[in-house]
Design goal:
This protein is mainly alpha-helical. It contains ten helices and four strands. Helix 3 packs across helix 8 and helix 5 runs antiparallel to helix 9.
Length: 244
């Protein structure tokens, strides 16, 4: 059954053979489910757990798909309540299809960062110079200075990570970390961040980053690796919190 509501225009989406992101494929599948389910605008979607079980995927994959649908105006996520249908996706050639987003999903990105930046921190603890520590500490100090200014705090946070990569003396690692940090400016990431970023999260990150800096200062690569991994795993946990 195709959902049709008088006076409501569906969001126009584009069929594109280049849609290859897992969370976008899942968004298409959920869109098909909504189209056939009889849900009307204002109705609540099935829970993340129910959708994950139905499509045999992780709850984080469902979360990324729902965020993509929210960006397209299909659903609205209400903190403490769940996701609600705003308007049904338009059917294009018999199927729903989402315009592709650039870049990976937030959880895909965070897991890659956890693997790569943990090792970057390990190397940086062995190779860093005093001048590198000065730049890293300046970024850390700016994070504290701008703890109540979300945008400035995030900019300092990114600079902290990039400066650690620079301290390795390896230009490839610097390029990789810079590219991953730049991916946190994507629409899907920003929407996820909008739902879960808080003052408490910034305070926790400040503590995490201090531990990373302390390990770099002590030239302790194992502590630096562990602190970076713990930091990024904590961010994954925050982004995985239930929104109802």
């Amino acid at each position: 059954m195709e959902l049709m509501t008088p006076g409501v225009q569906g969001t126009e989406l584009v069929d594109d053979v280049n849609v290859d992101r897992a969370y976008l494929r899942l968004a298409n599948q959920i869109g098909e489910l909504l189209t056939k389910s009889g849900l009307k605008p204002g109705d609540r979607l099935p829970s993340e757990r129910a959708l994950a079980d139905q499509f045999e995927v992780s709850r984080t994959s469902v979360r990324e798909a729902i965020i993509a649908m929210e960006l397209h105006g299909i659903v609205e996520v209400r903190g403490g309540s769940g996701a609600y249908l705003v308007q049904p996706p338009v059917r294009v050639y018999g199927t729903t299809a989402f315009m592709p987003e650039s870049g990976p999903g937030p959880f895909e990105l965070l897991r890659a960062r956890c693997l790569i930046e943990s090792e970057v921190a390990f190397v940086a603890a062995e190779t860093r110079k005093d001048s590198d520590l000065d730049r890293i500490f300046e970024a850390l100090a700016d994070m504290r200075l701008y703890i109540d200014d979300k945008a400035a705090n995030i900019a300092a946070d990114r600079r902290f990570h990039v400066c650690i990569a620079d301290a390795t003396g390896n230009s490839v690692l610097l390029q990789m970390v810079t590219a991953m940090c730049n991916q946190t400016k994507s629409p899907v990431w920003n929407k996820m961040d909008q739902h879960f970023h808080s003052a408490d999260m910034r305070e926790a990150s400040q503590h995490d980053h201090q531990l990373i800096f302390d390990a770099l200062l002590a030239r302790d690569p194992f502590a630096a690796r562990a602190a970076m991994r713990a930091h990024l795993e904590r961010v994954i946990k925050v982004f995985s919190q239930s929104w109802r």
